[in-house]
Every structure is written in C-alpha cells, then in structure tokens.
Amino acid sequence: MLEASDLVVSLRETSAGDFYKWHEDFLIKGHSSASDERSGTLEFLGHDMRTVLATARFHGLGIYKLTPDKAEAQSEKLRRVTAAMYCQEIDFTFGGAATAATAAAPPPPSRAAVSEERERERVDAEASTRREEAKLAPSFARLAARPQLR
Predict the structure, then answer these.
(1) Fewer CB atoms inside 10 A, N or C side of the chain?
(2) How many whole angstroms separate alpha carbon 125 and alpha carbon 54?
(3) Domain span at residue 137?
C-alpha cells in the first residue's frame, strides 16, 4: 500500500498568483470544505519532452502553507514561493497502461494546527526583524554621532 504524503511545490513568485488566491480563499476566508479542495496532475516526460512515461494525479488537495523564500540583499536571483498541500489520494498511470495505485493520506491539519503554525511563523519573523535591527543599531549610532558638515 502506498502512503500519500504532503505535496510541496516550489515555483517562481511571478507564477504563484493562483496559489496566493487559493491560500487566501482556502485558509484565510475559510472556504475549505471537500468541495473547495483541488486536483492536480504531474506528467513525467521522456527524453523527447513529448512522450508521457507516467502520470500522477493528485486528488483532495488542500493548501495549508505558502511561504516566499527569504529575499537576499542585492540578489538577482528570482524569488521563489513554496506551497505545501495535503493530499487525500494519488493515482499513478505508467506508460500507456491503466494501472493505478491509490494512496490514502492522513487527515488534513486542523484549523488549530494551521493557526499555531501561522503564529509560529509570525513570531519567527518578528524575532528575525529584531535581530536585523540589533545588527544595524551600532551603524546608525555611529552615523548619528558624526559631526554635521555645513
């Protein structure tokens, strides 16, 4: 028996608009019933990038976390976003055959667990901001202590 795990994807922030909308609607606004869950498909392609070797179909997807990567100062690297979703069921099709395997998933995280996770993320972000401010404080103090040229 296959065991379904969370589905985690990383994509460019510029392509993540639909994930942001889904996150807002599903988590923030609370539209998270079974009818609000989504499905997805992942195709594994051959070396010619046309032939489908296998297909994974995800059913009962519910987004519970959306995290932008940390921005690096003066980085020209494209920013990415990581989306984490629970998955109720996965069907696999190999080659052209209709062999499918279904994996049962653990129940989705409770709203309380999601709220706790969001609170931890908020506290971590505040602590990170305070650390950055503490690093910069000596520089600002030196600048403030310099005599003004007129």
Answers:
(1) C
(2) 40
(3) 110-150
